[in-house]
Amino acid sequence: MRIVLLRHGEPDVPEITRLRASEIHYWIKSYNAAGLKAGHGASPEAIEIANHCNAVVCSNLPRSFESALALGIKEVNYREPILREMELPYFGFPSPKLSPHIWAALFRTLWFLGNSSNGESLGEGRLRASNATARLKEIAENTESVLLVGHGLVNSFIAKELLSNGWRGPVSPGKKYWEFGIYEYTS
Q1: Which residues, other chains included, contact 56 with Cβ-Cβ below 8 Å and sequence gap of 6+?
Q2: Rounded to an integer, what distance in angstroms lies between the CA atom of residue 28 and that of residue 89?
Q3: I need a surface site. Which of 65, 77, 83, 94 has the fewest CB within 10 A?
Q4: What is the pLDDT of residues 96-138, one digit of tens each?
């Protein structure tokens, strides 16, 4: 059996240079609603590996589905909310204006430290990734190979879960857009 974890392409997020901590939820909302940025296609290697999978699974976020289409996938078999990216917490406190990417890095660090204001906790995220892994394994058992066009952090959590269950593959499926990791299980 084979599971390919591929990160989506670059999303077309409106350019916001600076905002306050209390405004980050607007940026998160626009990021989650964004499709793909034009002209940022997948590598030939990613396209080839994607088209050799028997089933294709995406999250329910537009950048995931549009990435599958950009890979030349004719049919997405499953679009599952359980596979969306880990929710980014946000906090509404007085602050200077900073780049949304700085806020995202800060809030993600706080999330790993146990702060999950306005989002799922780290424990909830791990449980969701565990359930998502079980779902992908079920699909792989029925189809022999499955491609998840997913997201950076959730793909990483799923990879750890696969590796801890006897699957073979890289420690990280890749953090950059269109990067992927191939995980195989032989009984």
Answers
A1: 50, 68, 73, 75, 76, 77, 78, 146, 147, 149
A2: 9
A3: 94
A4: 999 999 999 999 999 999 999 888 999 999 999 999 999 999 9
Tokens of residue 41, six digits = 């296609």
- CATH superfamily label, 2-184: Phosphoglycerate mutase-like (3.40.50.1240)
Residue partners of 43: CB distance under 8 A and separation at least 6? 178
**Rounded to two decimals, what is the model's pTM?**
0.94
Angstrom distance (rounded) from CA 162 to CA 160: 5
pLDDT tens-digit series, residues 67-95: 999 999 999 999 999 999 999 998 888 89
Query: What contacts 167, CB < 8 A, 6 or more positions away?
Result: 3, 183, 184, 185
Burial of 76 (0-12, 13-18, 19+ CB in 10 A): middle
Each domain of the chain, given as residue ranges in start order, spans: 2-184
